[in-house]
Amino acid sequence: MTGLHNMFLSLERLSGGLLTGLAALFTLFFLAAVALASLAGVGLLLVPAALRLLRTVANWERERLLRWGVEIIHSYCEEVPRSPLRALGSLQHDVQVRRNALWLVCHSVLGLPLGLFGVLLPIIAVRDITFPLWWHLLPPNTAGASVGLPVHSWPAALAVGFLGLAWCAIMFGLSPALARLQGLPGKRLLGSRSQTVLTERIHHLTATRAAALQAHTTELRRIERSLHDGTQNRLVAVTILLGTARRVVRTRPERADEALEQAQAAAEDALAEMRGLIRTILPPVLEKRGLEGALNALAGGCSVPCAVAVRGLDRYASSIEATAYFVVAEAITNITRHSGATRARVSVTGREDRLHIEVHDDGRGGAQEGVGTGLAGIRTRVEAHDGSLIVTSPVGGPTHLHAELPCAS
Q1: Under the phi-then-psi rule, with left for phi > 0, alpha for psi from -120 to 50, and beta for the rest, what region is 290?
Q2: Which residues on neighbouring strands pair with residue 359, listed in sequence order?
Q3: pLDDT confidence of 281, banded at 50, 70, 90?
Q4: Residue 60: C-alpha distances to residues 21, 57, 338 (Å)
């Protein structure tokens, strides 16, 4: 009974592989058509759709193998870009895309025929086993075995019945091996090999570190502009007002207090602006009150009622706390300026050496990373720490932001 059970399971696996094989063959033809059309420049617009279709079919095969106890974890470098040029670039640096394409060819050539064999073989076996029961009902000279031999007598019809038993023996003996052979390309190509993982890891770290350096350079330029255009001008104004006050003391002593008061006000403005600039570099509230206190201070300054829930926090590296603070501050700024929300919620949880940050609002939604620099800046800072960011913001709301930062070190 166990052997029969394994045979039926193998036939089921082969028939499932037939479906993914048909999808793989269709995708292969579609990719070939897009490639030919791209030579004329027309098919470039279809490259993102072709890559999404390739990824979808490969995921179907992963899910099929998972149902039979084979877990295959993909290692895509990124989501499929919407830009045709970026999609073409992913073919160069995303190893998993190339492995998916190679699996597509192998499964179309190998998996599809094996799946077809797994579906047709039981039908042929049943047909030949029952052939002696109904062959005499066929018109003369039309009866024949599944292999094409004509049948004109009862002994020949019984021989066809024994041929059907032979087909069953073939199914019993070969179907498990054929099912394993059909799934072999998926196991080898759809998963991540150690060298592939290392290559993709190096590429990801290179990209995130480059983005971090770019963000650092941009931040330095912002500080330089703020010092040059703001604080420096105010200090120049203080110098001018002090010079004016010295002249007033000699010429019109009765107006000296007014001139000195203006110089003092200008100095206080310059000091306040410098303090504000320092807070944007590394907020002092993080040092004084910790991350929880700093987040409560951010929520208190939000024009939208904002609740803060903090669980399991410890003191982390200053860069991690500063990044978490920046994520929440930028998200609250977006809520205040663009969301039209009536309520917001911030949840920060320390769990399993990772810091989970969630910001939720009931606003109008529709937030996109390509519009403005807020979400893009958040992603750059999070990925610089090897973290992840997921933003869900359908049109009509709500908007949910989830950032995850590793903080074991």
Answers
A1: left
A2: 346, 401
A3: low
A4: 10, 5, 39
Please report, for residues 33, 38, 346, 371, the alpha-carbon distance to residue 48 in angstroms, rounded to integers and kept in the order given: 14, 12, 35, 20
Say what the pLDDT of residue 212 is.
Answer: 61
Q: If you average pLDDT over residues 256-279, what whole number do you get?
A: 72
130 neighbors 27 (Cβ within 8 angstroms): no
The residue with tokens 């094409």 is 148
Q: What is the pTM of this model?
A: 0.48
Q: Each residue of 196-251: pLDDT tens digit? A: 556 666 666 666 666 666 666 666 676 677 666 777 777 777 787 777 777 877 77
Flag whether pLDDT at 1 surpasses 60: no
Nearest to 280 by CA among 345, 227, 237: 227
Q: What are phi and psi of 53, to 5 degrees?
A: -65, -40
At residue 200, the pLDDT reads: 61
Going 375 to 376 to 377 to 381, the CA torsion angle's sign is positive
| Residue recorded with tokens 């076996």 | 125
Encode pLDDT of 49-86 as tens digits.
888 898 899 889 988 888 887 777 665 655 666 777 77
pLDDT value of position 106: 92
β-strand 306-311 against 399-406: which pairing, if any?
A: unpaired
Pick from 39, 59, 200: nearest CA to 47:
39
Q: Which residues contact 33 (CB under 8 A, 6 or more apart)?
A: 43
Is 291:321 a contact under the CB 8 Å cutoff?
Answer: yes
